[in-house]
Amino acid sequence: MPTIFDLLGIKNKGYIQFGTDLLSKQHNQTVAFRNGDFVSPTYTKISGTVYDSKTGKKLTDMTTKQKDTVKQMQNHVTTELSLSDRVIQGDLLRFYTPKGFKKVNKSDYSYKLTKTLKSLKEIQAEKKTSVLSKHKGKSTESLYKTDAPELSSSSDSSSSSSSSSD
Predict the structure, then answer these.
(1) What CATH number does residue 8 fall under?
(2) Any signal peptide, and if so, which residues (predicted)?
(3) Which of 41, 69, 77, 101 is a Cys-bridge partner for 32, taking CB atoms 3.0 to 4.6 Å apart?
């Protein structure tokens, strides 16, 4: 989100966000993975093993400076993951009420697959906006023209035969 806000010219001070502005000079390029591993322009740590990100070689005899740098990166990753966990598991955003905030009723939303699919089918039945429904179930694939080599005439017969069975 910080990058999108920057691109749109929106000041994002006062918002709770995770991540960094990719366009910022202060952007931390360390990418954290859920299991605590990380990748940065200089070091990659996977399952406790540290690699040089540029060469891909395993670093076995690291200098004190290298160890300190990796430790700082690991602390950053651990902190980010811990803060994220606290917000999510503690449902802490329920206490966040910035100016102009409209409270969301959680019971209005379901993330269960069966309910979501049912809801989507109902919406599709009410508002037939898809290209397929606007063409009474007929494919518009034949209207698509391309010079992409992977879709050359040799593959046309296989794609048209598969679409005719739909």
Answers:
(1) 3.30.1120.170
(2) none
(3) 77
Pairing outcome for strands 31-32 and 49-52: unpaired
The candidate with the shortest Cα–Cα distance to 141, out of 163, 157, 161, is 163
Contacts of 166 (CB under 8 A, 6+ apart): 139
Q: Is residue 132 part of a domain?
A: yes
**What is the chain's pLDDT, residue by residue, as a tens digit (166 residues)?**
788 888 888 887 777 788 888 888 888 899 999 999 999 999 999 999 999 999 999 999 999 999 999 999 999 999 999 999 999 899 888 888 888 888 888 888 888 999 889 988 888 888 777 788 788 888 888 888 888 887 766 544 444 444 444 4
Are residues 90 and 124 located together in one domain of the fold?
A: no
The values of phi and psi at residue 52, to 5°, are -80, 120
Q: What contacts 77, CB < 8 A, 6 or more positions away?
A: 30, 32, 36, 38
Instruction: Please state the φ and ψ torsions of residue 89, each to the nearest 5 degrees.
Output: -70, -30
What does the block give as tokens for 6? 């920057």
* Nearest Cα residue to 21 out of 7, 41, 42: 7
Cα 49 from Cα 69, distance rounded (Å): 14
CB 28 within 8 A of CB 79: no
